[in-house]
Amino acid sequence: MQEIKITTTLTCYDNIEELPQNIQELMQHAVEARKKAYAPYSKFKVGAALFLENGVVVTGSNQENAAYPSGLCAERVAIFHAGAQYPNVKIQQIAITATSDNHINKTPIPPCGACRQSIAEYEMRQEKAIEIYFMGAEGKIMKSDSLKDLLPLIFDKSYL
Ligand code: THU
Predict the structure, then answer these.
(1) Domains held by the chain: number
(2) Which of 75, 155, 70, 157 has the alpha carbon at shortest distance from 119?
(3) What are the residue numbers of the active site?
(4) How would you label 57-91 residue by residue, b for 16+ Cβ within 10 Å and e otherwise?
(5) Is the CB of 111 under 6 A from ligand 1?
(6) In CATH, what number is assigned to the domain containing residue 78?
(7) 73 in contact with ligand 1, CB cutoff 6 A
(8) Is the overall model pTM greater than 0.90, yes or no?
(9) Which residue, judged by its Cα, is nearest atom 8 of ligand 1?
(10) Ligand 1 pocket member 62 (CB < 6 A)
(11) Residue 158 falls within a domain, yes or no?
């Protein structure tokens, strides 16, 4: 028997001004996307902005539905849009921001498990790490250098 420890390293920025200029701009795109969320049920609005290697920024926001599971998270709206419109263009970075209408979230809000799995698929498909930056409404921002740092023991096509 053997114990296995899995560790991960993230970078934490104190505020948006501390981010590199290009990422500040990407996060601003995510903030604008967040304002377009359709979240009448949860009142929780999420925005995601992807920077593609061709310089295009693709954004998404969560889109809810009266039949709750029919809705989709912001991150998947964005990456599926990128996959549909730019299938052979690599994603370099993703910026995510989320907040409730009921209170201002000031801690970094990471992507949910289903979104991590979806981002993992794209990272493996493009064979290049995707940097992920996530924040609440404002305040600290966390960064992972790769989706792999957010999802240990990824299920992927090698198991099929
Ligand atoms: N949501 C996202 O858009 N991304 C996540 O990673 C977590 C959750 C959305 C789904 C739903 O519309 C609302 O936030 C509350 O869960």
Answers:
(1) 1
(2) 75
(3) 75
(4) bbbbbbbbeeeeeebbbbbbbbbeebbeebeebbb
(5) yes
(6) 3.40.140.10
(7) yes
(8) yes
(9) 73
(10) yes
(11) no
